[in-house]
Design goal:
The two termini are 24 Å apart. A hairpin with a 2-residue loop joins strand 1 and strand 2. The chain has one domain: Orthogonal Bundle (Helix Hairpins). It is built from two helices and two strands. This is Prefoldin subunit 6. Keywords: Chaperone, Coiled coil. InterPro entries: PFD_beta-like, Prefoldin. It comes from Raphidocelis subcapitata.
Length: 121
């Protein structure tokens, strides 16, 4: 196997790995987006409640009474955390996309070199 072919194989493997990593991160982002939407809905429902309303939090198998203000604060903190994680994941996605594009360009160059000069004798 030629040195050029080995180099091409390494680049293809690196490209596939970058694609797998990207797929995992996109799945994580989807999960975070779903959590964000759920918590937004909870926050909207909490906002509709009267200050005297009873709010319960599920802890294990038990429902525990919780103060409305505390419940809103907890959901707000959770939303802030999720939004921060979304930002972090978006940065990772950008880095992995750039890495995949760089690998793809390198693969194209190696394939052109392997094909040899165009129109030669």
């Amino acid at each position: 196997m030629s040195d050029l072919q080995r180099q091409l194989d390494r680049e293809m493997d690196a490209f596939r790995e970058a694609q797998r990593e990207l797929q995992k991160i996109v799945q994580a982002r989807t999960q975070l987006e779903r959590q964000s939407n759920e918590n937004d809905l909870v926050m909207q429902e909490l906002a509709r409640l009267d200050d005297s309303a009873n709010v319960f939090k599920l802890i294990g198998p038990a429902l525990i009474k919780q103060d409305l203000t505390e419940a809103k604060a907890n959901v707000g903190k959770r939303l802030d955390f999720i939004k921060g994680e979304l930002g972090r994941v978006d940065s990772q996605i950008k880095v992995l996309q750039d890495k995949a594009v760089a690998r793809q360009q390198e693969i194209m160059k190696l394939r052109q070199r392997a094909a040899g000069p165009v129109g030669g004798n």
